[in-house]
Amino acid sequence: MKLEGKVAIVTGGARGNGLAIARCLAEEGADIAIADICEDMKTLPYKLSTPEIMAEAVEGIRGMGRQALGVKCDVRKASDVSAMVDQVLKTFGRIDILINNAGNTSMVAIAEMAEEVWDEVVDTHLKGMYQCCHFVLPHMIGQHSGKVVSISSVGGQRGFGMGGHYCAAKHGIIGLNKSIAMEVADHNINANVVCPGTVWTPMMKGIAESFGMGDEDGKEQFFAGHLLKDRELTPEDIGRAVLWLCTEDSQNITGNVITVDQGWTAQAP
Ligand SMILES: NC(=O)c1ccc[n+]([C@@H]2O[C@H](COP(=O)([O-])OP(=O)(O)OC[C@H]3O[C@@H](n4cnc5c(N)ncnc54)[C@H](O)[C@@H]3O)[C@@H](O)[C@H]2O)c1
């Protein structure tokens, strides 16, 4: 196993891509801390995870023979992130891997977007990544090793109408990651980004439903750009790319981006 003895924090790990990432890391031996808000936000058109969903995710990882911890944590808040990192260190004694995955979105044109709509999305993705790196990197620097993987999106490489806040934050994640990679390279820490295409998680289902679309028409709309169509892009596809960036197989890659999008961005203008 490639991650035996390692401890990973996965933000937004209660479900969707985050849970698949957590399970991929656990399969390779890592113990897992899931940090998830587990409550809804005012302006999102769908529900976020609940304490019950997080408890089920934690139990599932324990069922794989790993240690697992669930911490209720809003990555936008310094006090939550600081307390979460303290709890992880108290429980496991170290942090080797940080996955900045917590995310959300709504779809609103900028001309109609209230400040709170912008803040809930941009702060989760971008301020959340800053907060988690701010509190975790000192420990990684102290142990002279670590892996940080942040989840951006195809929306970090192109625009989506009605997704200005999401695309701004996802582009920002790629820029922030490059700066972090420069700052921590001397401390043997790799920092990389994974950009998923559309994955049919509760976030995408929720967005589709808010436009009155069911699974079938939602998928038709949101998978339209993907070139490879024989199989659907899954959370496990994202998990496997993240896993690779957390192993020594990718030890000389940093400040970089892996796009897992079935070819979508290959044809983008
Ligand atoms: N699903 C897709 O098509 C897709 C595509 C590209 C990128 N992504 C990215 O993948 C990541 C995971 O998204 P998903 O599709 O699995 O969505 P999801 O809604 O299924 O899961 C996101 C998780 O993050 C948690 N969360 C939301 N805001 C939070 C906050 N402020 N603090 C802590 N936890 C918070 C939610 O409770 C939920 O458990 C996000 O960063 C998203 O932008 C998803």
Short précis:
Helices cover 43% and strands 14% of the residues.
Query: Uncertain regions: pLDDT < 50 for 5+ in a row?
Result: none
Order the strands across the largest sheet as they lie in space: 3-2-1-4-5-6-7
Structural class: alpha/beta
Number of domains: 1
The multimeric state of the shown protein is single chain
C-alpha termini separation: 41 Å
Order of helices and strands: EHEHEHEHEHEHHHE
The third-level CATH topology is Rossmann fold
Q: CATH homologous superfamily?
A: NAD(P)-binding Rossmann-like Domain
Shape: globular
- In percent, how much strand structure appears in the residues? 5-15%
| Ligand species | nicotinamide-adenine-dinucleotide
Total E-strand runs: 7
Description:
The structure is a single chain. This protein is α/β, with parallel strands linked by helices and 269 residues long. It contains eight helices and seven strands, in the order E-H-E-H-E-H-E-H-E-H-E-H-H-H-E. Strands 3-2-1-4-5-6-7 form a seven-stranded parallel sheet, sandwiched between helices. Helix 4 links the parallel strand 4 (97-100) and strand 5 (146-151). 48% of the residues are buried. Bound molecules: nicotinamide-adenine-dinucleotide (NAD).
